[in-house]
Design goal:
elongated
Length: 177
């Protein structure tokens, strides 16, 4: 039971860092600068590396005795905590920091629908898009972002935990007498 609590504690601590990374990715992607979006891509690439390091450290700390399912659970919990922090950060950003963000995104998407012939061929016009997204609130966006983070995080954690478990852990060191 002690190792289980240790894994939950590690996941909660790492989840805070992962959540900050997710918020940074969102903020960088929300900007219009190509350099900022490139930085966001770099952070996206870093996410699985970060999760792998956390899971591998747990695997090594227990000298390879941690079951695969617990390593997978640690990854899922990392993404859960990170997703919750992302949702809170997105809500704060949309609700209080940049209240015009959501209407601007709806306007931008409406303009995209108007200019894209695929939507016109499907019979979708800008008025339908505006009507569909009119009731969208910042809390809706924040909570909706949590689900893809959890789903993709669960799948990524499965693969990452398998890779980490396949690495042989160092044997425990013997005390010097």
């Amino acid at each position: 039971m002690k190792r289980y609590k240790e894994i939950m504690r590690r996941a909660a601590e790492g989840g805070v860092t992962l959540g900050v990374i997710f918020v940074c990715i969102f903020l960088l992607e929300a900007s219009i600068s190509p350099l900022m979006r490139l930085m966001a891509l770099g952070l996206m690439i870093y996410v699985p590396i970060f999760v792998y390091r956390k899971i591998r450290n747990t695997h090594f700390a227990n000298f390879g005795a941690t079951p695969f399912s617990w390593l997978w659970l640690e990854g899922i919990m990392l993404f859960l905590h990170g997703g919750i922090i992302l949702s809170i950060g997105v809500f704060i950003f949309i609700e209080w920091l940049v209240p015009d963000f959501l209407p601007a995104m709806i306007t931008q998407f409406t303009a995209y629908v108007d200019s894209n012939p695929q939507f016109m061929n499907a019979g979708i016009d800008a008025e339908q898009v505006t009507t569909a997204f009119r009731g969208l609130r910042s809390i809706d966006v924040a909570i909706t972002l949590l689900w893809p983070v959890l789903l993709s995080g669960s799948i990524a954690s499965l693969v990452i935990a398998a890779i980490a478990k396949s690495k042989p852990a160092p044997p425990p060191s013997l005390p010097n007498f």
